[in-house]
């Protein structure tokens, strides 16, 4: 961006993310668990649009965690060419070491490993899909872009509080939430500080929809007509007294 400013070139930036995933007390828990799997573990968690922080209402926390953990524990970690493979390798050994450090720091801070939490095999770039429970907002993994197969679960009780927690990040790419209340859906959608919102769905990205974020997630959009606008300059022309 600094280099482009010297000659006034326009830039479109897609940067970091720390996407929240909220499960309200009236949510369809089974649907939310499926969405959580899609939102966290696609690409082995190595994508900006993956959900990082899972906020689950106290009333459905235990049920959600039980179903999520049982599903994650059964996921097949393997070479992508193998039949039934669901979780592939991380990009390199340094990425695996970073994930190990994130998990270790979280456990030292009081989080509990519900499943996973370690490499599949010594020396390999495969990390077991992991669920951490009893996570608190102040823990370091809530402030980082995870980029690995780790779901961190936090409890909440109040809608306003969870929206504030979801927005408490320097980035704002995407957010996901689950509720059956249409009024709440519009309230929360409008309150979330991000460029993309998924309501009762987490597979919301495609080429005909604008992709991009707010705050330090970048500027500009890819996809849809919004993506074309990044390459255009407006020209105003007025014919008079012809």
UniProtKB/TrEMBL annotation:
Sorted keywords for this record are: Oxidoreductase
- What is an example of a GO molecular function annotated in this UniProt entry? succinate-semialdehyde dehydrogenase (NAD+) activity
Oxidoreductase keyword on record:
yes
Q: Which residues form a coiled coil?
A: none
Chain ranges of the Aldehyde dehydrogenase domain: 4-237
Say which domain of life the source belongs to. Answer: Bacteria
Query: Where, by residue number, does the polypeptide cross the bilayer?
Result: none
Q: InterPro entries from the entry?
A: Ald_DH/histidinol_DH, Ald_DH_C, Ald_DH_N, Aldehyde_DH_dom, Aldehyde_DH_Superfamily
Pfam families, alphabetized = Aldedh (PF00171)
* Keyword Oxidoreductase in annotation: yes
Which terms does the UniProt entry file under GO BP?
Answer: gamma-aminobutyric acid catabolic process
Q: Which family does it belong to?
A: Belongs to the aldehyde dehydrogenase family.
| Protein name from the UniProt record | Succinate-semialdehyde dehydrogenase
């Amino acid at each position: 961006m600094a280099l482009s400013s010297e000659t006034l070139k326009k830039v479109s930036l897609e940067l970091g993310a720390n996407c929240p995933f909220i499960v309200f007390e009236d949510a369809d828990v089974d649907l939310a668990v499926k969405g959580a799997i899609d939102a966290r573990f696609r690409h082995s968690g190595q994508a900006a649009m993956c959900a990082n922080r899972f906020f689950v209402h106290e009333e459905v926390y235990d049920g959600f965690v039980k179903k999520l953990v049982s599903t994650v524990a059964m996921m097949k970690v393997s070479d992508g060419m193998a039949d039934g493979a669901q979780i592939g390798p991380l990009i390199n050994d340094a990425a695996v070491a970073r994930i190990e450090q994130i998990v270790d720091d979280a456990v030292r801070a009081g989080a509990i490993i519900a499943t996973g939490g370690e490499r599949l095999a010594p020396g390999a770039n495969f990390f077991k899909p992991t669920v951490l429970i009893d996570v608190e907002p102040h823990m370091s993994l809530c402030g980082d872009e995870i980029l690995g197969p780790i779901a961190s679960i936090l409890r909440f009780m109040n809608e306003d509080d969870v929206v504030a927690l979801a927005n408490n990040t320097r980035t704002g790419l995407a957010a996901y939430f689950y509720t059956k209340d249409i009024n709440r859906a519009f309230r929360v959608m409008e309150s979330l500080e991000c460029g993309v919102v998924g309501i009762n769905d987490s597979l919301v990205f495609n080429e005909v929809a604008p992709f991009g974020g707010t705050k330090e997630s970048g500027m500009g959009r890819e996809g849809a007509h919004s993506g074309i606008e990044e390459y255009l300059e407006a020209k105003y022309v007025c014919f008079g007294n012809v």
